[in-house]
């Protein structure tokens, strides 16, 4: 069965816009260094699906996304952002980050799922961020569990790390679920960005942690 024309066109676009990302990469590290102290302490493995839950606007989800984009630029790697509600503000990150950044703008949830699927199948952008923060939890919970299982399996096969930002815990098959805790006030916006990034409070969901299998 031949691939649909739009899928072929999307792959060709990725290859033309990000030729370095499609070059052969050496396999070396197995854990993900993010530059965020609370995350790096967890020694998160590469190539896994990570759900990042932020139930409050004061938890610093935008700050975390910007930190991850900055990190990928620092190590000369590409990042893709599947923007589930076309709400990402490119002015929130610097020009160097945007040089190695693919922004996939979606209006509806099915579009976002399809875009993530294509990126993970392509497998040449090592970090895919999927922002579903503005989609109601009830809408996300209506998705068949097979959707999340497919994305997880594609990421594991291609070695792509996938971070899905959600408003509440919805992905039961996530390899790791992280909780962003409210920690910032209006006064904190006057502090330097590096200080705020260092102060991000990220913890593993204890319920999810108990369900993880070792080995």
Q: What is the CATH first-level class name?
A: Alpha Beta
CATH superfamily: P-loop containing nucleotide triphosphate hydrolases
Secondary-structure element sequence?
HHEHEHEHEHHEEHEH
Shape: globular
Number of helices: 9
Helix and strand composition category: alpha/beta
Q: How many beta-strand segments?
A: 7
Poorly predicted regions are: 207-215
**Through-space gap between termini:** 37 Å
Number of domains: 1
Strand content: 15-25%
Mind telling me the C-alpha Rg? 17 Å
Largest sheet: 7 strands, mixed
Measured as a percent range, the helix fraction is 25-40%
What descriptive keywords fit this protein?
215 residues, alpha/beta, Rossmann fold, 9 helices, globular, disordered C terminus
Write a structural description:
With 215 residues, the protein is of the alpha/beta class. The chain has one domain (39-87, 98-210): Rossmann fold (3-Layer(aba) Sandwich), CATH 3.40.50. It is 38% helix and 16% strand. The chain is built from nine helices and seven strands. Strands 3-2-4-5-1-6-7 form a seven-stranded mixed β-sheet, sandwiched between helices. The protein is globular.
Give the SSE layout.
Elements: H1 5-17, H2 37-40, E1 49-54, H3 61-74, E2 79-83, H4 95-99, E3 101-105, H5 109-122, E4 127-131, H6 137-141, H7 145-158, E5 161-166, E6 176-180, H8 193-198, E7 202-204, H9 206-211
Parallel strand pairs: 1-5, 1-6, 2-3, 2-4, 4-5
Antiparallel strand pairs: 6-7
Helix pairs in contact: 5-7
Task: Give a short synopsis of this structure.
This protein is of the alpha/beta class and 215 residues long. The chain is 38% helix and 16% strand.
């Amino acid at each position: 069965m031949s691939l649909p024309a739009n899928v072929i066109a999307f792959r060709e676009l990725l290859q033309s816009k990000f030729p370095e990302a499609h070059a052969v990469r050496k396999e070396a590290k197995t854990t993900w260094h993010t530059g965020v102290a609370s995350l790096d302490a967890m020694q998160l493995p590469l190539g896994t699906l990570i759900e990042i839950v932020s139930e409050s606007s004061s938890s610093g989800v935008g700050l975390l996304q910007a930190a991850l984009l900055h990190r990928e630029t620092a190590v000369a790697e590409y990042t893709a952002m599947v923007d589930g509600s076309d709400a990402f503000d490119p002015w929130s990150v610097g020009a160097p980050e945007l040089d190695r950044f693919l922004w996939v703008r979606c209006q509806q949830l099915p579009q976002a799922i399809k875009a993530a699927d294509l990126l993970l199948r392509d497998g040449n952008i090592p970090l895919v961020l999927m922002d579903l923060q503005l989609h109601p939890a009830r809408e996300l919970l209506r998705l068949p569990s097979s959707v999340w299982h497919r994305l997880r399996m594609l990421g594991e096969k291609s070695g792509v790390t996938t971070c899905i930002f959600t408003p509440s815990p919805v992905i039961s098959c996530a390899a790791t679920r992280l909780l962003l805790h409210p920690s910032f006030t209006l006064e904190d916006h006057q502090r330097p960005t590096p200080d705020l990034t260092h102060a991000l409070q990220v913890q593993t969901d204890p319920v999810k942690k108990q369900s993880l299998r070792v080995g």
